[in-house]
Specification:
- There is one protein chain.
- The chain has one domain: Aldolase class I (TIM Barrel, Alpha-Beta Barrel), CATH 3.20.20.70.
- The protein has six helices and nine strands; from the N terminus they run βββαβαββαβαβαβα.
- α1 packs parallel to α2.
- A nine-stranded mixed beta sheet has the order 3-1-2-4-5-6-7-8-9.
- It is of the alpha/beta class.
- The protein binds iron/sulfur cluster.
C-alpha cells in the first residue's frame, strides 16, 4: 500500500473531532477538486513508502492510539484496504474510520469488520460533483458521516437538497464545513437558521485553526 504520511495528531473532523487519532495517508486521488489542500499527495512523483497491511497495523499498535483514520488522496483506491481494516480491528479497542471523497462505492470495501465512513459530497464549487457515487448516500448508517464542504450559496442549496432527498439527518451524522477562506462560517450558520436545519452540524477544520493552514503532518 502506498503511504505518503503517517502520524499522530487529533482528529480535525467528524464525530471524533478533538480526540487523538493516528493518521495513515495514502497516495493518489481520482478527483481534482478546486480547493484541494493535499494535491501534493496526488502528484505522480510524490514520494511514498510501500507498506503491507501488517506493517501499517504494527505502526498503529506502537502508537497506542485507538482512533485510526485512513485518508488520502482517496484511500478506497488501495487494493488491500479491506485486509488492512480487518487487521486493524485485531488491535484491542481500535476504531477505524475511512475518509472517502464520495466517488467510490463504500460497499466495495472487502472487510469482515465494517469501518465507519466519512463520505464527502463534492459540491458544485469542487468541480467534481458529477463524479459522486450516489448509492453511497443510500448506504450510510448511524456510525457514518456525510460531509458537505461548502464554499458558496449554490453549495449550501445543493447540500440541503441532498440531505432532504436521502433523509440523511435521520440516518447518519451530517456535517457542513466551509471551504477555507471562501465562505464565512457565520454565513453557513445564517443559512442553517433560515432553513431550520435541525440535526445538521457546522464543523470548522480544527487543523487549520490550531496550526498553519498549509502545515503537513498534523
Ligand atoms: S477528493 Fe480530496 S484529495 Fe482528492 S482532489 Fe478532492 S480534496 Fe483533494
Amino acid at each position: 500500500m502506498k503511504v505518503v504520511e503517517k502520524f499522530v495528531s487529533i482528529n480535525g473532523e467528524s464525530t471524533r473531532a478533538g480526540e487523538l487519532a493516528v493518521f495513515i495517508r495514502f497516495k493518489g486521488c481520482n478527483l481534482n477538486c478546486t480547493y484541494c489542500d493535499t494535491k501534493w499527495a496526488n502528484e505522480p512523483d510524490c514520494d511514498f513508502t510501500e507498506m503491507t497491511p501488517e506493517e501499517i497495523a504494527r505502526y498503529v499498535e506502537e502508537t497506542k492510539v485507538k482512533n485510526v483514520t485512513l485518508t488520502g488522496g482517496e484511500p478506497l483506491l488501495q487494493n488491500e484496504i479491506g485486509i488492512l481494516v480487518d487487521r486493524l480491528y485485531e488491535i484491542p479497542g481500535v476504531r477505524v474510520e475511512i475518509e472517502t471523497n464520495g466517488s467510490v462505492d463504500i460497499m466495495t470495501v472487502q472487510s469482515v469488520n465494517r469501518p465507519s465512513f466519512t463520505v464527502d459530497y463534492k459540491s458544485p464549487t469542487s468541480s467534481c460533483e458529477s463524479r459522486m457515487c450516489m448509492t453511497n448516500y443510500e448506504n450510510v448508517g448511524k456510525e457514518d458521516t456525510v460531509k458537505f464542504v461548502v464554499g458558496s450559496n449554490e453549495d449550501l442549496d445543493k447540500a440541503k437538497e441532498i440531505i432532504d432527498r436521502y433523509g440523511l439527518k435521520d440516518r447518519c451524522n451530517v456535517y457542513m464545513s466551509p471551504v477555507f477562506g471562501m465562505i464565512e462560517p457565520a454565513d453557513i450558520v445564517d443559512y442553517m437558521i433560515d432553513n431550520n436545519m435541525n440535526g445538521i452540524r457546522l464543523q470548522i477544520q480544527m487543523h487549520k485553526v490550531i496550526w498553519n493552514p498549509d502545515q503537513r503532518g498534523v
